[in-house]
Design a protein that fits this description.
Layout (H helix, E strand, L loop, with lengths): L1 H23 L8 E3 L4 E2 H8 L7 H8 L7 H4 L1 H4 L6
Antiparallel strand pairs: 1-2
Length: 86
């Protein structure tokens, strides 16, 4: 039981640290490529998902092919998703 609680606490601490790091980082510039395979930029994502200010991967996949190449952009979504809409 003790290990489980410690593991959950460690996970919560890591998530809080990641959120704080994202908070400190500035928003990404419009010309930054999120998907290099299909040249999908931050601006493309902002314009496509601006209505609800949330990332809609399915819409981005349909419109631009995001994530259909090597898939690195989708694997790294936690690194960039909070830096798109600031």
């Amino acid at each position: 039981m003790r290990c489980s609680m410690s593991t959950e606490l460690d996970k919560d601490i890591r998530e809080a640290q990641e959120a704080l790091q994202d908070w400190k980082r500035p928003a990404l510039a419009d010309d930054v490529l999120i998907c290099e395979c299909y040249c999908v930029s931050v601006l493309d994502i902002r314009q496509t998902c601006s209505a609800d200010a949330q990332i809609n991967l399915e819409l981005l996949r349909e419109k631009y092919g995001l994530g259909s190449g090597c898939g690195r952009c989708v694997k790294e979504i936690n690194e960039w998703k909070n830096l798109i809409f600031r």
